[in-house]
Structure formats: structure tokens, C-alpha cells
Design a protein that fits this description.
This protein is mainly β. 0% of the residues lie in helices and 46% in strands. A hairpin with a 3-residue loop joins β3 and β4. The two termini are 28 Å apart.
Length: 158
């Protein structure tokens, strides 16, 4: 290994280090009662940092509001009691429509499970401005077996 030297200017000040922001959830908890295609989760594994606000509502489902302009990475996986569209939407107003019926400009990623209890995973890396809202947006099918196959992770990467 080569030694490397970091030389700082002879000035007094502070060095700001970015705090990691990420949300990780698992265990499905149905859908919002009004926004009946928006997934809910029962278990918060991590919810760290200032850039993403996670909120869960029995009527609206889970929302992930972007607080800081930047590049974000998101992934979700799902298993259902039959074939189902699995998706991620941003700023969608079509919250009672299946993800595959949403305007393409509001779809971050979309996938399809092949049948009962078969899991699929989708992901996206995207730029979002402060105020954008990301959701796990499906077709509304009931969860299949295996809570471990229903996950959500989102992080600010730049």
C-alpha cells in the first residue's frame, strides 16, 4: 500500500460531513384504505438521516417524501397470493389505479410476479427535487407467504 498525505489549508473552520439518509422496511401490512394500491409495511428496520421522511397512514399507505434535492436509490421486493404488478411511483396522483395504469412519467420502476408466492425485486436510481413523494405502488393483491420477500430500501446516494 502507498502512503498518502492529505494537506489542509492553514485556516480555522469546520468540515461538514454528510450524514447518511436511508429507510429500510419489511413485513407487509396491506394497503391504504383510500389509496388502495399503495403498500404499507409493519416493521421499520432503519430510518436514519434528514433527507427522507417516511410516514405510514392507514388511509394513504406508506409515503417517502424527499427533503433534499439529490440522487436516490430505491428497491422493493414482493410476494403475493397470485400474479401482481409491483412498482415504485413518484409524485403519482393515480393512487387507486394499478402501477401499470399510471402515467409513465410517474413510474420509477415496474415488474410482475409470475404467480402465487413467487417474489420479484425492482429498483431504480433517480434524481428527485425536495417535496417529491415516492411510493410502493402495486396492483393491490394480497401478500403471499414469506414476509422476508417483502422489503423496501431507499437511500440518498448523492
Amino acid at each position: 500500500a502507498t502512503d498518502r498525505t492529505l494537506t489542509l489549508p492553514d485556516e480555522t473552520g469546520t468540515l461538514a460531513l454528510a450524514q447518511a439518509s436511508y429507510v429500510r422496511l419489511n413485513t407487509p401490512n396491506g394497503y391504504g384504505s383510500t389509496n388502495n394500491k399503495i403498500r404499507r409495511f409493519a416493521n421499520v428496520v432503519n430510518n436514519v438521516g434528514p433527507d427522507i421522511t417516511y410516514a405510514d397512514s392507514a388511509t394513504l399507505g406508506a409515503t417517502f417524501t424527499i427533503n433534499t434535492d439529490g440522487v436516490y436509490s430505491v428497491s422493493t421486493s414482493g410476494s403475493f397470493d397470485g400474479g401482481n404488478s409491483l412498482g415504485l411511483s413518484i409524485n403519482s396522483t393515480q393512487l387507486t389505479s394499478s402501477i401499470n395504469a399510471n402515467d409513465i412519467g410517474n413510474v420509477l420502476a415496474i415488474g410482475q410476479t409470475a404467480g402465487a408466492n413467487l417474489s420479484t425485486t425492482i429498483s431504480a436510481v433517480f434524481y428527485a427535487a425536495s417535496g417529491a413523494v415516492v411510493r410502493v405502488h402495486n396492483s393491490g393483491a394480497s401478500s403471499g407467504t414469506g414476509d422476508q420477500t417483502n422489503q423496501f430500501t431507499m437511500a440518498r446516494v448523492a
